[in-house]
Amino acid sequence: MIIRKGRTKTILEAALDAALLAVEVYNKPRTTFRSEAYIVLMIIAWTRLFHAYFNATIGDRYYYRKKGSRRFERIDGEKKAWELATCIKEYGELPEPVKKNLEFFIGLRNRIAHRHIDRKEVDILIFGECQSLLFNFENTIVSFFGEEYALHESLAYSLQFSHLRKKQQHSASKSALSKDVQHIAKYVETYRSSLADDIFSSQEYSIKLLQIPKISNTNRSDFAIEFVRWDDLGTEDREAYDQIVAIIKDKRILVEAANVDKLKPSLVVAKVLETIPGTRFSMHTHTSMHRLFGIRPPSAADDPFDTNPVYCLYDEPHNDYLYTHAWVEFIIVLLQSGRVTVESIHEAYRRNEVWNIGEYE
User: How far from 313 is each of 304, 309, 333, CA to CA, in Å?
Assistant: First the structure.
């Protein structure tokens, strides 16, 4: 797509600036706000990338309009544009692993907005997803607008220290994490567990890097860093790689079990009240919320399995619904942020409103 000076190019340049700033912050030594800043800036970069694409292809139709009117919705006098979740839905052509990677960070962004993460464990925990988020951004921008807008000319591989403590590489050290970081680690674990194996294993969802010093005799003109594409490897090279990985990797064994770590509505209410004592959150409030956000179908629905699996699952043997810890976290963050109150939830339920959960995540 050829773009000339104008609004599309201005939005696209803003997307590039946000992505480059995200990488600069992430790679800066002694940064304690690394993951939060990177995620927020990359969400902005992706949103503006989609806005630039939509502006070039459908004009101003990526702005919300008032129901039954041609007039735009406005916030503080500015037209309200589609948020990233809506952009992904309206575009509708992203590969599933790319989509899942973005949805992972949309949910994570909403959780870190109310917490300060100053532990290196979280940076290491989500490094693979962070790297894929950047790679996918570059691939998408090239797909939309061409090679001239690729970022690789502007970036270099960040220098690494060799003495990375082993215990930081494993989420098993949760006992040493602060309460806020435990919430984040739990969200990451829950989200990853919800993914199909082919998506979780995809490099578009999470880059897995094996860093081994290159000590063989090489040509003096060789690059110090080489990225090897799996698709380009021959059979012998793939077998050699698999042997290396078999030596050093941690084996993950999945044992199927039913309803592990899922919560009944009463326990959801109890956990909310435990975290926010004094609130008037009740079973009625919980019922109002799951109906407002549509995370599960009505009781008489034809398809009881039509849930939002991040937050709710249908328990067929018991013919009822169970909720995830991510749902509890969503409720707590929403109430603590002040965006909604128990009273506003009840009032919206009485008016039979429907809320787009993507606007609140």
Answer: 9, 6, 21
Task: Please check whether residue 204 is in contact with residue 132, taking contact to mean a CB–CB distance below 8 angstroms.
Answer: yes
Q: Are 103 and 94 in contact (CB under 8 A)?
A: no
Residues 6+ apart with CB under 8 A from 1: 56, 144, 145, 146
Residue 355: C-alpha distances to residues 102, 297, 344 (Å): 21, 14, 12
Task: Give the integer Cα–Cα distance in Å for 158 and 211.
Answer: 13
For the question of whether the overall pTM of this predicted structure is more than 0.85, the answer is: no
Residues in the chain: 361
Secondary structure (DSSP) of 281-343? --HHHHHHHHHHHTSS--TT-S-TT-S-TTTEEEETTTTEEEE-HHHHHHHHHHHHHTS--HH
Residue 63 carries which DSSP code?
B
| Amino acid present at 213 | P
Of 89, 149, 101, 88, the closest CA to residue 129 belongs to 101
Angle formed by the axes of helices 179-193 and 325-337, nearest 10°: 130
Q: Are 67 and 86 in contact (CB under 8 A)?
A: no
Distance CA 329, CA 334 (A): 8
User: CA nearest 328: which of 351, 306, 312?
Assistant: 312
**DSSP class per residue in 10-21:** HHHHHHHHHHHH
Which residue type occupies 201?
S
Q: Read off the pLDDT of each residue in 350-358 and give the average, rounded to a whole number.
A: 92
Q: What are the tokens at 191?
A: 């989200």
SS3 86: helix
Question: Smallest Cα–Cα separation from 282: which of 274, 290, 273?
Answer: 273
What tokens appear for 44 in the block? 């902005």
Spatial distance between the Cα atoms of 28 and 147, rounded to a whole number of angstroms: 27
The answer to whether the beta carbons of residues 57 and 12 sit under 8 Å apart is: no
The answer to whether 327 and 265 have CB atoms below 8 angstroms apart is: no
pLDDT band at 77; cut points 50, 70, 90: confident
Domain regions of the chain by residue span: 7-200, 265-359
pLDDT score of 61 more than 90: no
For residue 329, which of 285, 288, 361, 298 has the smallest C-alpha distance? 361
